[in-house]
Amino acid sequence: MKQLLTISLLALFGLVAPGIEAKGIGCRELSYPERAQVVIVADNMIFNGVPMAAWELRWSETPEKLRAFYRSTWETRGNKVTENAMGEWKTVATADGDCFYTVQTKPTATGSYALIGVTKAPSNANPPPPGSGFPTPSGSRVLNDLRHKDGIRNARTLLLANTFSMEANASFYRNAMADHGWQPTMDRPVGTEKGPARILMWKRGAEEASMTIGKGVIGSSVAVNIVDKP
Fold this sequence. Notes:
Elements: E1 4-6, H1 9-12, E2 19-20, E3 30-31, E4 37-47, E5 50-59, H2 63-76, E6 81-86, E7 89-96, E8 99-108, E9 111-120, E10 141-150, E11 153-162, H3 166-179, E12 183-192, E13 195-204, E14 207-215, E15 220-227
Antiparallel strand pairs: 1-4, 2-3, 4-5, 4-10, 5-9, 6-7, 7-8, 8-9, 10-11, 11-15, 12-13, 13-14, 14-15
């Protein structure tokens, strides 16, 4: 998912547009300083129903100069800019139509490091709730539901919690996944730093699903990853 995009001499001569593409979620391109290094974390994902994109940026100049770069860029467009600080992290942010941009910065030994995020208001006024379309035991709470593209693959990662035991969850998913056409390929207990857990895996055509069930604060936590083109 991560892809290094280093601005080279081509960018300095105008042969490469200095910008981060946020078009995958329908937002304006986000520019970045010359000679910065940008790593794509995810350029087209949906987190709990909200379209998002994220990058890491490293630059040889100070965080103050990096925030000033974005402040100037956004204010030139007539956008309102907000800033706040939490510990060593300082953030500059703005809204542009339905899109919200944040740049979190901190100093490094060689300059500055930033986490850049873009979110867009869902086009659907009532987006499907997290976990929609995936079977869950009664009373489960879906904490995270992340959909993203990883190269040519579509992937989905879910995290849920409930009050049932690990074995009760495993029994539920053995039946529920079979009912949805999934064939088991692995089902075994494992030891982890947090204690005992169980790993289950399935295939359905070209799709693969993996699940880890562990002990939660109360009951169990269930982490699921589904890809359509392994």
